[in-house]
Amino acid sequence: MKRSQIKNEYAEEDPCLEENVENGEEMPIISVVVNPDSPQNINALSSNVPLFIKKLWIIVNDESNKEIISWNSSGDGFEMHDQLGFISQTLPKYFKHNQLSSFVRQLNLYGFHKSQSIERDEFQFTHPFFLKDVPQLLPLIKRKVPSGRSQSTKPTPNENSPHAPIVQELVGTIKNITDKSDAIATDMSKLRQENAALWREMNTLRLKYSKQTKIINKLIHFLIAYMQKHHNSRKGGRTSM
């Protein structure tokens, strides 16, 4: 199935378009001069997409940000390459703050999963509906509903649509991939911890070996000195006789 076949008809109206509110203030819509058909155009996105998700989509797709934040190689998440640059340049450009913790908290509220690259000191965030070149899925990203609140706003595809089975299958496949990715990330984290423990143990053994070697060398020197002294004393006694 082509990504372009996924239609906005599966998006449900979002009652909370004033998302990403910090300290009770609504974050302003940014002003960016772009091609009307490009993914950086905030007005080209569905009105059912939460404001924070719109801004996130624009940030990740903006080529001028690629040294700081960009899609990962598989296109199923984005990577933050330069945290300091993101704090000092990107956040103030799109939001009224430069607090990375607030940005990450918003990602958590929308169900993004955070992981860290083993090869590089970079953070990666993934969401089953936040995929490169598939803005049609963005309306399905919803803010987590606190316990006790109604779950009636949960987005579901239009069952009468001829594409509904395909979309449901796609959503199920994405969820399975996400679950497997989370399991792999957990295993990798355990391996890193075990590897760190092995290194600590090896370092402790190396220190013990070094201390024991020094003690053995001191004993050898002491024995050699003692034997030489004893030999010289015996030799001197024979000479006097």
Automatic annotation (TrEMBL):
Keyword Iron: no
Lineage: superkingdom: Eukaryota
Compartment annotation: Nucleus
Gene Ontology CC terms: nucleus
Domain HSF-type DNA-binding, residue spans: 48-144
Entry-linked InterPro entries: HSF_DNA-bd, WH-like_DNA-bd_sf, WH_DNA-bd_sf
Compositional bias of kind Polar residues: 148-161
GO molecular function list: DNA-binding transcription factor activity; sequence-specific DNA binding
Keywords (A to Z) from UniProt: DNA-binding, Nucleus, Transcription, Transcription regulation
Region (Disordered): 146-165
Chief localisation class: nucleus
Xref: SUPFAM superfamilies: Winged helix' DNA-binding domain
Keyword match Nucleus: yes
Family: Belongs to the HSF family.
Name of this protein: HSF-type DNA-binding domain-containing protein
Native source organism of the sequence: Dendroctonus ponderosae (Mountain pine beetle)
